[in-house]
Amino acid sequence: MSTRQTARPFATADARTSNGALDMPEPDHRLDRIAEHPIFKTLVHERTRFSWILTGLMLFVYFGFIGLIAFDKALLATKVGGTASLGFYMGMFVIVFAFLLTGIYVARANTRYDRLSAELVRSLAK
Amino acid sequence: MIRIAPFLGAALIGATPSFAAGPDLGAVQQQATNWPAIFMFLFFVLFTLGITYRAAKGSKSAADFYAAGGGISARTNSLAIAGDYMSAASFLGISGLVYSSGFDGLIYSTGFLVGWPIVLFLIAERLRNLGKFTFADVASFRLDQTSIRIISATGTLVVVAFYLIAQMVGAGKLIQLLFGLPYLYAVVIVGALMIIYVAFGGMKATTWVQVIKACLLLGGATFMAGAVLYKYGFSPEKLFASAVQTHPNGEAIMAPGGLVSNPIDSLSLGVGLMFGTAGLPHILMRFFTVSDAQAARKSVFYATGLIGYFYILTFIIGFGGIALLMSDPSYFKLGADGTTYNKIKDMIGGTNMVAVNLANAVGGPYFLGFISAVAFATILAVVAGLTLAGASAISHDLYAQVFARGRTTERAEVNLSKASAVGIGIVAIYLGYVFENQNVAFMVGLAFSVAASCNFPVLAMSILWRGTTTWGALIGGLVGLVAAVVMVVLSDAVWVKTFGHPAALFPYANPALFSMPLAFLTIWAVSKMDRTRRADRERAAFDAQFVRSETGIGASGAHVH
After folding, report:
1. Which portions of this protein are annotated as coiled-coil regions (chain A) (predicted)?
2. End-to-end CA distance of chain A
3. Touching check for A38 and chain B: CB below 8 Å?
4. Does A4 fall in a domain?
5. Are B166 and B20 in contact (CB under 8 A)?
6. Is the pLDDT of residue B472 over 90?
7. What is the pLDDT of residue A12?
8. CA-CA distance, A38 to A49, in Å (whole number)?
9. CB atoms within 10 A of CB B429
10. Which residues pair with B290 in a beta bridge?
11. What is the mean pLDDT of chain B?
């Protein structure tokens, strides 16, 4: 089993007391510093935007497919090549598309967002 | 002679009445005792019990019990997630649906899959950064512990209860067919084994049971789909052509059919499948078993690939069933004249047995035994995951935070969790027994709808929207929960088919299209109207939560040592 520790420079930054209840508001300057930090702002802005764009794409593709099933069955029944129908290819496309989207997100998160996070932690440790 | 009720297919797949109203599977002779299957299953059981024993020796703390010490790798976790998701319902139900109506099976396959990207983009990393053991940890991060844990635990237990009943009844019927064992034996065996896995081995044992089962299922399905394609020179086109020639509906199986006739219902089904995934408590718990947000992210990516691959396999298996089984009378109950049979209705064991019969056709009796054992193992692993989620809601959320108000020891909490697992197991056996001859077709669908209408809105709004207050989340979650349950009760599946009223009061089979937006709207409206001082504090506390959810700074580490 792995004994890797996660980086946690602010192990005490948990806002909760020992019984788990909130004990707020108590101004925490460290948190303010992070929230106002330019790298944090860039990270959150970019990632939030990217996540919602991908979410929108997934919703559009899936509900587009369902919409066609509901409203235009004839189109989906169209033969493409021999026996396979357009609907079959679209269904397969939805499955592959879902996987590709998660891949795109993970690739970007592993490079861009993890680098920004690491930079943020480094600059806070200064 | 033991009868198998016509709703087995729908019970497994968690379908809508439109599906439940599908082909009548008819009564089936109890199968001869299937010794190869029983031996292979016994081997699986012994092996997993060995793992449970090892896990029990290594599990001491609450973190071990609920989250396997946070030490599961992304790859292992992705297999466990896929295992939790690839139930016997997906495997037998969807391949059976493809067999009977072709293309329509894809509607379920895609719906079950597309929730995963949403989980990844909006939930997974934030969940790992904010939570410890259950999703209620996350939802109650800056809100009132008591109220939010009550609503989250209620949502969890309702989802677990409906899901468990459907799985237990499905297990009983299936094992009756596959192993030739009486219904009650099957239900008791499943219940007893899931109690042992969860109570002794906690999350570690449950995870490994899930991983092993996922590998067996993926391996078996790959072999079957490969064998089918091999017969057609690895040309899907030839397979489809052969299927179209053999199937009584001909060309129609390549096009959308009658499964979703009503546009509103199909959208509602889609919403329920998609967002229900993001609110299933036993799935959400898996994100706490990995060390950090990066690992959570990667596990969803791998899991999406595995699940998508699996659904493509079930599609091939369904078509393989059409092409290879439909012309072979030995897989059907023959009519009075001894030669004619209905290619869909008369399949031995019903259309849910397509994958199992196909295993025999492509791999002989030992492969049939293997696939039967895998199907049983699948049910066992899924119910174990559900039991652990239910037990955690009782001990970690209700007992430790609501009744004891945090004044409890870790040891007492874990012990209560083990006791809860035993209790849930016994209740599940009892319910499985009681519901044997009831219509449980709507129950998995209801579980997804409740997850989409109660758990998901509460979780998403508390993480993503600053304005969410305790009152908003509590009332909104409750409204979503009640709306989903009431709409299903008033729908055709329960109001007409179970209670025998003449007409359904709610016209659609799936409530999520209405109940989920209602929950979001209620959370928003009540939070907006909430002028209490507590609400102000909670909105102010969003910043701290936001920093942690976005960066993981301050998150619970991988180990509590």
Report:
1. none
2. 32
3. no
4. no
5. no
6. yes
7. 36
8. 16
9. 21
10. B72
11. 85
Residue B317 structure tokens: 């298996």
Q: What total number of domains does chain A contain?
A: 1
On whether the CB atoms of residues B284 and B65 are closer than 8 A, the answer is no
Boundaries of domain holding A35: 29-125
User: Of A4, A6, A18, A93, which to mutate for an interface test with B (greatest number of B Cβ within 10 Å)?
Assistant: A6
B407 touches chain A (CB under 8 A): yes
Do residues B322 and B253 lie in contact, with contact meaning Cβ atoms separated by under 8 Å?
Answer: yes
Q: What are the backbone angles phi and psi of residue A16, rounded to the nearest 5°? A: -95, 150
Q: Which residues contact B409 (CB under 8 A, 6 or more apart)?
A: none
Find the DSSP H helices in B278-353: 281-284, 293-325
For residues B485 and B476, give the distance between their C-alpha atoms in angstroms, rounded to a whole number. Answer: 14
Does some domain include residue A39? yes
3-class state of residue B223 by DSSP:
helix
- Which tokens is B303 given? 């899991």
Choose between B377 and B24: higher pLDDT. Answer: B377
Q: Looking at CA atoms only, how far is residue B488 from chain A in angstroms? A: 21
**ipTM of the complex as predicted:** 0.86
Q: How close does chain A come to B479, measured CA to CA in Å?
A: 25
Continuous segment of H or E residues that includes residue B429: helix B410-434
What is the rounded CA–CA span in Å between residue B214 and residue B386? 16
pLDDT confidence tier of residue B308, bands split at 50, 70 and 90: very high
Residues of B in contact with A39 (CB under 8 A): none
Cβ contacts of B88 within 8 Å, gap of 6 or more: B12, B167, B170, B171, B174, B375, B378, B379, B382
**Token pair 């959570």: residue:** B296
A54 lies in a domain?
yes
Residue A37 lies in a domain: yes
List of chain A residues with pLDDT < 70: 1-29
Question: In A, which residues are within 8 Å of B546 by CB distance?
Answer: 35, 44
Cβ neighbours of residue B499 closer than 8 Å, sequence gap 6 or more = none
Nearest Cα residue to B97 out of B19, B189, B175, B169: B19
* Contact status, residue B167 vs residue B440, Cβ threshold 8 Å: no
Mutate to test the interface with A, among B409, B537, B547, B549 (most CBs of A within 10 A): B547
Stated length of chain B: 561
Q: pTM (2 decimals)?
A: 0.86
The SS3 of residue A85 is strand
CB atoms under 10 Å from CB of B335, counted, come to 11
More confident residue, B465 or B407: B465
Contacts of B103 in chain A (CB under 8 A): 76, 85, 87-88, 91
Kindly report, residue by residue over B315-368, the tens digit of the pLDDT: 999 999 999 998 888 888 888 777 788 888 888 777 888 898 899 999 888 898
Interface test with B, best of A69, A80, A86, A96 (most B CBs within 10 A): A69
What pLDDT, on a 0 to 100 scale, did the predictor assign at position B455? 95
Contact criterion met (CB < 8 Å) for B244 and A31? no
Please determine, for residue B14, whether its predicted confidence score (pLDDT) is greater than 80. no
